[in-house]
Amino acid sequence: MTENKIVTYKCPSNIALVKYWGKKTGGVQLPANPSISWSLSDLHATTTVTRIEKVESKALENQISLEFYLGGESKTSFEPKIKQFLERIAPMMPQVYLYHWKIESQNNFPHGTGIASSAAGFGALALCFADFQRDSLEQEQNWSDEEFLKIASKYARLGSGSACRSVYGKPGIWGETKAWIESSDEFAVPFTANVHPTLANWADAVLIVDDGEKSVSSTQGHDLLKNHPYASSRYQQAENNMVRLLEIMQMGNLSEFISLVESEALQLHAMMMSSEPYYLLIRPNTVAIIEKIWNKRKENQWPMAFTLDAGANVHLLYDKSYSLQVMNFIETELLVHCKNNLYLCSDLGAAPQKL
Ligand code: PMV
Q: Which of 47, 311, 321, 330 is the most buried (most CB within 10 A)?
C-alpha cells in the first residue's frame, strides 16, 4: 500500500479584455476566436487533491472515482462535470483511472455573486493534476516550468475554456491569432511583452448587480453561435481587436484601450441579444452603472473602463493611482445599483501558487 499524495494550488479567476465567445466545430473546447485576459489576483479558488490508492478489486476497472467538496460541503452535483474533465485528460494522463480522487475546493469570494468560479476552480484543479503527472515522470522526461504550465493550461481548457488563461501571472492569450506567434487553440500562453506603464497598474472592482442563476448558461451561449447570423463577422472582429489590443498594451494608448475594451463587452452582449433564441443578461442596473461610468469619465478623464462577463455584473477596471477617487465614486454613486450593496475589489495579474 503506497501513501496517499496531496497537492494544493491556489488559482485566480480572470477577466477577458477580448472575449472568447463561440467554439470551433470539432475538437473539445477549441475557441472560435482568440481572447486575452488579466487574472483577478484577489478572487481565487484553492483546491486540494488527495490521490488515494483504489482498493484492489476496483483498481483495474476503467472507471473514474472521485468525491468533491466545495467550502467543506459534499457537492455531488458538481461531480459529473469533474468526471467529464478527468475523462478528457485521461488520454494524456491514464493514471486518473488508477486512483480514487478526493477534491476539496473553496473560493475566497462569496458563493452566489454571479462571479464565474469555473475559471479559478478548473485552473486550480488542472494545476493539481498536472503536478501529479509531473511527479510521476521519469527524470529524463521531466518538464520545464514552461511545459508544465502549458499542460496545466491545456487541462484547464478541457474543464472550462476560459480557465486555461488563469495559469499565468502575465495576461493569458488563448486561441490562434496572428497577433501572437506562440498562440494556440489547445492552451493559453502568457503575454510576455512589456505592458506600457499607463496600463500596467490597474485593478478591478466587480459591481455585483445580480447574484442569481443565469437564464442562459455560457455553454448554451457558446452553442448559439453555431447558427448565428453575425458569427463570422464577430470572429473576425475579435481577431482584429486582438491585433490592435496587443499593440495598445505595449504603446499605452489609453483612449484606444478604453474604447476597445468597452466595445468588446458590448459586442459579447450584442451577440446574446441577436442569438436565436435571443436573450438578455444585462439588467437595468448594469446599464445605469455603465452610463454613470461614461459620464464620470467625460467630466474627469479618469483612466477607467467597464467590461462585462456573461452576466449582469459590471467590472470596473481602473488605474490604481486613481483608487481613492474611484472608490469614492463607487461608494457614493454606484453602490445604489449593486445587489446588497456588494462589490468586490481585486488587483490584476497574480500567478497561481502551489501551497
Ligand atoms: O469559459 P466559459 O465557457 O465559461 O466561457 C466564458 C466566456 C466569457 O467569460 C463570456 C468570456 C471570456 O473570454 O472569458
A: 47
